[in-house]
Amino acid sequence: MPNLVRYKHNGIIGNGILTTIRDKTVVAEVCGSFYESWTTSGSFYALEEVELLSPCTPTKVIGVGVNYYSMATFLGVDVPSKPVFFIKPASGVIGPDAMIVMPELSNKVDYEIELAVVMKKRGYHIQPGEAFDYILGYTCANDVTAVDLIATGSPWTLAKGFDTFTPLGPCIATDINTDRLYMEAFLNGKRTQSGSTGDMIVKIPQLIADVSKIMTLEAGDVLLTGTIPGKGTLCPGDVIEMAISDIGLLRNKAIRR
User: Fold this and answer.
1) What's domain 60-256's architecture?
2) Is 110:231 a contact under the CB 8 Å cutoff?
């Protein structure tokens, strides 16, 4: 299966797949829905002719707390006995090269690289052995957080729910093995986070099973799977890049308005 994208061309939003023509990556226009049935139209656009958008439009984004052994060690906390989930609103989703707007309410906005799972179809009480049947693919995510707004014992919605706080992209990779993907974050070109999904505590099938016991997952919904040590703080003008092997690179700039 190909890498899936959403894009804007001449003001019109469309779906497409990334393909190569004469050693150049282009977007092949798609007719139909990635969640049902689709076919290519025969039209192609150079990447510089389109604006890549978030590759999906979720009804909700579900995050998980400490979910890497290395992160638990770094924080000096016990490995969680079960996942701790939180919700990020769909209004926070942006795509590649869109601006992360740092809110006036916060003086410390952090970035966190995460592997994001994109759901393919509606599901409730999904069993771990069935989980991959419900997955469309995977993308890069930045779980932006106003960490100075997190209070012990309080919900994380305020800190994680601001508009522009969930960059996703650049594509949905549909045919990859997520057991040992390499993850890197770069702040203004300097690598600050690096690690492997092989260090994940609760694996993706179990995360989906646990979440779907609580809420119905819809096509296009996104499940974030946790971050690795090295996350840092953004300043206005910073460029933050998230790279995951076999998926690509997600780049955004931070601004304050």
Assistant:
1) Alpha-Beta Complex (3.90)
2) yes
